[in-house]
Amino acid sequence: MWARRNDKLLRDGERLKRRVVRLGSLSGDKWRQIAVLYRVADKYGVGVYPHTYCHGMAGDTGCVTGVCCACKPDVFAWEQELLDRLPKRLANAGEFCPFFNRTKKNCGIYAVRPFACRVYYNVARSRLSCRNPAEETLQLFDSLKRHLEEILGSYQGGYIPKQ
Ligand code: SF4
Ligand code: SF4
Questions:
Q1: Domain boundaries, the chain
Q2: Atom 4 in ligand 1: which residue has the minimum CA distance?
Q3: Closest residue by Cα to residue 98 from 77, 83, 79
Q4: What phi, psi does 162 have (nearest 5°)?
Q5: Number of neighbours of residue 1 by Cβ within 10 angstroms
Q6: Counting Cβ atoms within 10 Å, is residue 81 exposed (0-12), middle (13-18) or buried (19+)?
Q7: What does the longest C-alpha to C-alpha distance in the chain come to?
Q8: How far is the CA of 122 from the centre of ligand 2 (A)?
Q9: How far apart are alpha carbons 37 and 96 in whole angstroms?
Q10: How far apart, in whole angstroms, are the C-alpha atoms of residue 42 and residue 25?
């Protein structure tokens, strides 16, 4: 069962990569291209979510522990530019992402959250990988990075608000 689940995650990851590569080769309005990219990422999420630890934690209502948002989300140049325009939650400094809603325990910018957040799931068997991404997650993101740069601009690392 675990092997079948891993095959499914691999297949979905490969499909995601093919779609990102195809999208990167298209020209046109940048924000429209990014909107399509985000839809592609969300579609990937719908497919893999039932097979992740996240689903096991919270069923269809979604996880509200916020552990994976105790971070600086990975961003690319265009995402950095967008996030810099949004209001930040200063009380989160040093503990949670500046967009994490600590009261509701969810993402305060869900509709425009970065690509990395859209494809981030705990695909391991333990909660330890909520905070420390599993190897499969790191590999998927690494394999996508240069293709994502075609669409989102250069990789910036963990988001740090511009002063
Ligand atoms: S990675 Fe962990 S903290 Fe984040 S949504 Fe999944 S189960 Fe919840
Ligand atoms: S942008 Fe949203 S989903 Fe991503 S780390 Fe921040 S609060 Fe979490």
A1: 2-158
A2: 68
A3: 83
A4: -70, 140
A5: 5
A6: middle
A7: 49
A8: 14
A9: 26
A10: 20
* DSSP reduced 3-state for 96: coil
What amino acid occupies position 111? A
Q: Ligand 1 site: residues with CB under 6 angstroms? A: 53-54, 57, 63, 65, 67-68, 121-122, 130
Ligand nearest to the CA of 129: 1
Tokens of 4: 């079948």
Identify whether the C-beta of residue 76 lies closer than 8 Å to the C-beta of residue 149: yes
Phi, psi dihedral angles at 91 (to 5 degrees):
-65, -15
**Partners of residue 155 on adjacent β-strands:** 76
> Consecutive sets of 10 residues in the chain, 163 residues long: mean pLDDT of each?
88 97 88 96 95 79 84 97 96 94 93 97 91 93 96 97 82
With beta carbons less than 8 A apart as the criterion, state whether 130 and 122 touch. yes
